[in-house]
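Dear support,

I submitted the protein below through the web form. The confirmation email said the job was done, but the results page showed an empty box. After a refresh the structure appeared. I'm attaching both so you can tell me whether what I see now is the final result or a partial one.
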Amino acid sequence: MNMQAVSNLLGRLLALVGLSMLLPLFWALHYQGPDIRAFILSIIITVGAGVLLCLWTKSGEIGHREGFAVAALGWVLAAAFGSLPFILAGSCSSFADAYFETMSGFTTTGATILTSIETEPRGILFWRSLTQWLGGMGIVVLFVAVFPKLGGGGYQLFRAEVPGLSADRLLPRITETAKALWVLYLSLTLVLMVLLMLGGMDLYDALNHSFTTMATGGYSTRNASIRGFNSPYIEGVITVFILISATNFTLLYHVLRGNGKVLLQDAEFRFYGGMILVATVLVTLSNRCGAYGNIISSLRYSAFQVVAIMTGTGFTSANYELWPTLSKSILLVLMFMGGCGGSTTGGMKQIRILVCLKYAYRELYRLVHPRAVVPLRIGGRVVPEPTASGVMGFCVFYVAIFVIGTLTLTAFGLDIESSMGAVAATLGNVGPGLGRVGPAENYGFLSGPVKLLLSLLMLFGRLEIFTVLLLFTREFHRVGYPDLLPRRS
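What the results page shows now:
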């Protein structure tokens, strides 16, 4: 592996992260908060470290191994240096707390250790939201868009980070694709910001919640999250934009270019819409019988929470810990699912679940017709066998990590409901879980090692397991390993 090239790219990435801190510094200066000094020092340290890395190393050819290394290590370093404002401003008392909060931001998880959000400096709260917005589309994808002279290495970086079964090119050059995605992302963010301001939010709150909604992240400037605004209009607008953000951005790009038929023609999008509808109906009926006195209130809170949980956004408009057991069980299942591939969501993704269901049905069909040759089809297109086996492997790893993570948390003394909720919420990049990490609680009471473990689970979820696990395999580091891009599941 060309470590000189990897280190050089990591240096540039750090410089980009450091420069992004200028935005929260502006808000700190605007409000004359106590976090001004923290951001100035953080910018100097982060940009300085990035520049030194660039000066001490040389750029070079980027193969697939270098691409995966930059993607995984880039997120680790971004979270480490991104935690500096939290430490220097006194918002977090330990590195584990600050790293957890920052990794939760960049991976758009939305889990927090902060107990009194509204008393935090405005610059710090803006930095939390900005980390989610940067992580939503991807800091490495932004890096590819900003540095167009990466050549073929840009595609390796793009493939290593973009979620889903494949990294589709919208335009001939991968840098043009990255720029198009970011322009679309920014445009939708600005539209959402205007709509939220029309609903009564001020510029600061509207900008923060636009960032975290488009990123399906879930950080809020209020302790009570979205229920702190108590506005059906705001809940409705955010719900619509969460649904948009959880849709494959390739489809959104084509829709905005006048080809609206692609949505209904896409099998994953139809499956995604069907799952949202079924889950909303079930939770609404369950809550109508147990939590709310009328169907309108039940539908309002159930629909918002179903969409927020399944897409991994993590906003809350109600304390669902008080809901009936059936509703909470459905929400726990939804934490695993996520939105569409190529969106800003976490979880397993709808396309993988659809492939698994089709695969299971095909095996059942083969028991009845053992001689039949039945290709696996999604939306009329045949899914190659290597892709199908890759999906099954991903699902096995996902479940295995969930089980191991849950058992580990119980070994640290956490009850089973809270352990399952915490692991499902961090691995699925959801945020709030169940039990002691539910919507009315936070993760601050956990020990340092547990927070670091959950931070690793967030990284697994955001980079879809294989990108991280690959770094721990002997074959990946072996000299002479063939420089071929492996299939993506």
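Response: this is the final, complete result; the empty box was a page-load delay. DSSP finds 23 helices and two strands in the chain.
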